[in-house]
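From the shared-data thread, chain only:
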Amino acid sequence: MSFIIVQFLYYPKSRRVDYYFTFMVFSSAMFLLLFVMNNLSLQIGFTIGLFAIFGMIRYRTETVPVREMTYLFIIIAVSVINGIGADIPFGELVAANVLLILLIWVLESKGAIGKRTSTKLVIYDKIDLIVPERRAELVTDLEKRTGMKIRDIQLGQ
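Structure, as tokens:
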């Protein structure tokens, strides 16, 4: 299920191989850990707590965009749902997976939530243009370099 979400819904729009890898490995690890923990009669809260600690350590120093964090949460949820699937009737398990896929597909479709915009992280080298007085030049330069219409700019580090 995670493969379908990442391969067909997330990756075609983002093309972020680094997050693709993270989502797939995280999903597989969560599923296997829940499966093993379920068979050992340990509490699921313990498993989720382990991954929460991993998440805090891994992501506390790097700003993760909201969209990627949302997909990470979805991958965790799908892994948990499928990891404890032995306790859920098969029809409900399939229905939960299908509903989640349909929801993501509808929301990712063009026009589903109004006009779509995309966010791009750019490492910019013309430091002299990063001043309020030269904003128009900065926008023009970015549009020329990226081939995109710039609507807003946020400066980071």
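The chain has a mean pLDDT of 75.
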